[in-house]
Amino acid sequence: MKKFSLLLGILLLFTFCTYAEEDPQLPDVGVLLGVEGELYRASQEKSGPYHTYLYEVEMTIDEAASIIVDYTEAAREAGFTPKSNATEGVMIKYMSFSAETGMADLALYVAGKSEELANGEAGTLWFALAVPDAMTFVLGDGGPYLVEGGTRCPECGGSGKCAYCGGTGSDDYGNGYEECIICKGSGICDICEGEGKY
């Protein structure tokens, strides 16, 4: 019985070590925005050093809201817990993304053309992303979920090809190769319509 318990303990320890997750990588919002972030400030907070990156864009409030929704979902998929915070002054939206390695903040500010923004037109907005040094973050890297201008398609993994037939347009259903029932022979992903993103 002792040997069995010892063997079971070793097996459980091996399984735990094999499946231990790496620290999640915070995606760069600049990938969605199509601009590269600039280091705005390095600061020392109670929890450690932070770097704040600034992204200046011209877009409408609706477009910015869509970016925040996509970014929040990508961060959640990467392993972060999002939280919406109270705003003040010219800040439009303030989000926090927490993981075991710390908490990053994303804030959206009005930088110019506020009258145009109020009328539904494009204006100058600043996205500010504050990232603790302890968190895995690579400027310009959207991680596995973000690609320039959108979210990577989960069906095709960003290839744009039909995941069922591999992009050939046909598959073997037992009687030889026939037209793929998913893409109807086009070879294109039916979710993202061949874009690799949405």
TrEMBL record:
Signal peptide boundaries = 1-20
- Source domain of life: Bacteria
Keyword terms: Signal
Entry protein name = Uncharacterized protein
Q: Which organism is it from?
A: Candidatus Pullichristensenella excrementigallinarum
